[in-house]
Description:
By secondary structure, this protein is of the alpha+beta class. The protein has helices at residues 7-16, 38-55, 72-87, 106-119; strands at 20-25, 32-36, 61-67, 91-97, 125-126, 131-133, 138-144. 39% of the residues lie in helices and 25% in strands.
Amino acid sequence: MIGILPIKEAIRIARTQGLDLVEISPNAEPPVCGIVNLGKYVYELKSKEKEMRKKQHTTEVREIRLRMKISENDYQVKLNKIKEFLTERDRVRVSLVLRGREILHKDLGMAVIKRVIEDLKGIAIMENPPKSFGEGRLFIQVLFLPK
C-alpha cells in the first residue's frame, strides 16, 4: 500500500522495480492500480478462469426411449438410468413411440408414461404434462431434478 500517487510517479516507481503498473479496478474512485509483473498477473487470471470453468456443469437433455410392450426388467433398467441422469443434474426426455397397430391403444401408451411419472414422483418434477406428437404416435415427457 503506497497510497494515492500521480500517474507519472507511479509509473516511475514501477519501472525502477522492473515491473508494470496495472489498473486493477478502473471503476473505483480513485482508480486502483498495482505494481505487478504483467505476464504473471495475466497467467494467474487465466488459470483462475479455467478453474472456474472446470467446476461448472452444463445441463444436458438426455433421452430415454420406451415402447408400449416393455418388459418389467427392461422397465426397471430404464428407470434406474433415468435416476442416474437426474442425479447428474441433467434433464431427461422420456419418449414413447407407438408403431403399427399400437396406435389404436394410445391409452396404454399414456399409462406407461404415467407409470414413469408415478415411479419418479418424489425424485423428479414434470416440466409440462405429457404431450403427443405425430398423429399420436409419439408421447414425450420432460423431467428434471428440483433445486
